[in-house]
Amino acid sequence: MKRLGRDDLYCPLREERRASHLAEPRTPVHLWRGVSDGNIFIQACTWFLSQEGYIYMSITELPPLTTSVLYERISSTKKAEVVRELSALLGARFVLHTPYDLMLYEYDASIDRSTPDIVVLPASTEDVAAIVKIAARYHVPVVPRGAGTGLSGGAVPVYGGIVMVFTRMNRILEIDYTNKRAVVQPGLVNLHLSNALNPQGFYYVPDPSSQRSCTIGGNVGENAGGPHTLIYGVTTNHVLGLEIVTPEGKIVQVGGWIQDTPGYDLTGLLIGSEGTLCIVTKIIVRIVPLSEAVKTMVAVFDTMDDASNTVSDIIATGIIPAAIEMMDQVILQAVEADTHAGYPVDAAAVLLMETEGLRESVEEQTDKIVAICNQHHARYVRIAKDEAERQLLWAGRKNAFGAVGRISPEFYVQDGVVPRTRLPYVLRRVSEICESYGLRVGNVFHAGDGNLHPLILFNSLVPGEVERVRKAGHEILAVCAEVGGSITGEHGVGIEKQEEMALIFSPVDLRIMQQVRDAWNPDQLFNPGKLFPIPGRCADIKQLRG
Question: Residue 69 has what pLDDT?
């Protein structure tokens, strides 16, 4: 398609340019339309004439509609050919294709499911590149998968195809304590890196609640966070470089060993892209020294509002704790039955907080935090007396999702983000929404940065309950957007929230992001059907919001 320049555009104001001095813009005029991949799109242009007689224009490109199915399920004949080539490459043991073997890979930790056609387990970057070339030749989509702990359907193979599992690529390749760097493969379990670093006095900061099972490659795909990223930042703040495989099967290095490299920040672009741009095969991470002192405390409250207001006031004073987590009564009862960490089951909410750093500053911060909690009517504040008690308190928090299995057969977790000052309002709305659908909800979340995790309890065997849960989830995200927040903080968009992208992004915003995807992954070979709204549904979402 030809790129039109200024002289190619018909300008209704050009002849008036020197004869008129307009203070207000004219009505937008459709200047031209083009065809891209068989889809018609329009560019609308608003013209402004300045007092000096110069014309300024603002061009808005509306996204083309894509209504055709990206991929069809591969035929049995094609599947047999692909399996044969993959088995020759990896060995038959590492190519799974029977219905029994594939069942394990049809879901992640979300509530969506779709069965892959083939599952492969590569052992090296070269294996990954070769698999991608085979997939491209046969026009079969590829979905990268870490440990399957994702909560938005990011690893669910919507169109079947090949699921690439990184279980065999799970090594720490290099640790440089002097320069505070480590190089790891994507299948390395998050906690295993810190376990290897701790004896030398170091650790890896991002600590999702699933860190005992989630992989660093999956964390990169979703830009995962965790309780201790309040002060230190999320995954993107701790990854310096990547080795990736492109949809053409090329091996490329982005970023590097140093903090900042010249040119575009491709590392930042790829982190959080949910497997839609490339496949990551090696990760350079930043490691940090363990703190000299750590204090962990639990503040107990009789109302959610008091707990929420405490969070805002702590941050407002300039104190940034390492973590501020909140759990409500529903979650406390489940956690205490599971972990026996000493949480009060009759409290409306508790704040689990942690300060770390130099010993003197930790003591000072702790005293200030306790004082603020008392100002907001805390029943009491309990400080962990030793490392064993500290670990037990954190075990309760990090096992919270699993503990909910004691009170409900299933749950649906959301991941909205809101300004801290709006926590009381949003939490009330979450309760009202779930009550209106006849559903129970528990809240456990990163209160320090306003990243909510309402767990909507349900039973999929009850007719209509899944649909009510999805509607409640959408309304919760709409409230988050309404107060100036976001639809996701760390779980990603995946399948779950792709329609809700229209709540916070305009059609132009979405089209620009789609153009980035198309530049990297033009045939959507990698993780198709994710991240962006399905055409025609954006209007439905906006109507629901209204």
Answer: 62
